[in-house]
Design goal:
The protein is an alpha/beta fold. Helices cover 37% and strands 20% of the residues. About 6% of the residues have low confidence. GO terms for molecular function: protein histidine kinase activity.
């Protein structure tokens, strides 16, 4: 399938991809309720996490609800599992949306809690610096008795069939597991505000200063030669088209063995391998190992419809390896590609 940039078909395809990506995000987060995966704690940019969820939240909430973001500059990183932080944000926002059946405004705020302010909070300890995530709604609010019980498992004041009572108790469990706590302020008829406090991470966020913003003169520009290996022809076509429209020179292959043949015919080293993990003949992991022996500086972006923990044993993603779950938003895919290419350019 060859689609021109101005093609109406391309526009429809992109809309389908966006819708599928939204479904994937929601499914991935809902699956997190029922599994016991080990958490992966690392420095997390809370502002970035909220911004990345904005489109998904827009689809989850009714059209008569306005979403406002007030994210403070230079918010400290928090030591957290990104999937669980996304779950906290989603549950709080869905709960806020349910409190506004006639519509209203959902406001998400972030801010640092430093110095004397943190010391005034007994939960923070003597010297901890905190980061506060606030979710505010203009909904029905709640009385004091309800406020005291909202974090109890299976407690809900929603209509029968409208809620499980697990959303806020899950939030509470995650926040406490992260060494944080929650304050709730609410008045009947005047809305509610959930203030969630997380300890500041002592480590910086990896890649916090993008190399593109401090690229030295004479360094290799972003762009380059990319080999896309994917056994699904529709996905392969879309991925290749996105890369070409963003200035990359692209070749494509249907599996690992075909990729070796394509590279031999191309006759040039590549900068980036974008490959599916599970394919007939030769999988993505085996292909990457083989090519990196020939090209030690080769960057690899693995992609799969399987989550990382459900990939076959021979295809497990190792720490430091780049992975993206299909289907994915175009913006997220391009961000991953640019990050890998800039990393190579900065060497």
């Amino acid at each position: 399938m060859n689609l021109n940039q101005d093609s109406s078909s391309l526009h429809h395809v992109e809309e389908i991809v966006k819708a599928a990506a939204a479904g994937t995000e929601l499914t991935r987060q809902l699956l997190a309720f029922g599994r016991k995966d080990p958490i992966q704690m690392r420095p997390v940019d809370l502002n970035r996490a909220v911004r990345n969820m904005q489109k998904m939240l827009r689809r989850l909430l009714r059209e008569n609800i306005t979403i406002e973001l007030f994210l403070a500059d230079a918010v400290h990183p928090i030591h957290a599992d990104i999937n669980q932080i996304e779950q906290v944000v989603m549950n709080l926002c869905v709960n806020a949306g349910d409190a506004m059946p006639e519509g209203g405004t959902l406001t998400i705020l972030t801010r640092n809690i430093d110095g004397e302010t943190a010391m005034d909070m007994p939960e923070a300890g003597v010297s901890k610096q905190m980061v506060c995530l606030s979710v505010r709604d203009t909904g029905c609010g709640m009385d004091e008795e309800t406020r005291k019980r909202i974090f109890e498992p299976f407690f809900t004041n929603k209509q029968k069939g409208k809620g499980t009572g697990l959303g806020l108790s899950t939030v509470y469990g995650i926040v406490r597991q992260h060494g944080g706590w929650i304050d709730v302020h609410s008045t009947p008829g005047a809305g509610s505000q959930f203030d969630v406090y997380f300890p500041k991470s002592e480590l910086p966020i990896e890649g916090e200063m993008p190399r593109a913003e401090k690229q030295p003169q004479g360094s290799k520009p972003v762009g380059g030669k990319v080999l896309v290996v994917e056994d699904n022809p529709s996905i392969r076509s879309i991925v290749c088209d996105v890369l070409r429209r963003n200035g990359y020179s692209v070749r494509e292959a249907s599996d690992g063995l075909n990729a070796l043949q394509v590279l031999s015919e191309w006759g040039q080293p590549i900068d980036l391998l974008v490959t599916d993990m599970v394919m007939p003949a030769m999988g993505g992991k085996s292909l990457a190992i083989k090519l990196q022996r020939q090209m030690p500086k080769l960057k690899v972006l693995f992609m799969s419809g399987y989550t990382e923990e459900r990939l076959p044993a021979m295809g497990k993603i190792q720490p430091g390896e780049a992975f993206i779950l299909k289907p994915f938003p175009v913006e997220r895919f391009l961000s991953a590609v640019r990050g890998l290419m800039q990393e190579e350019a900065g060497r």
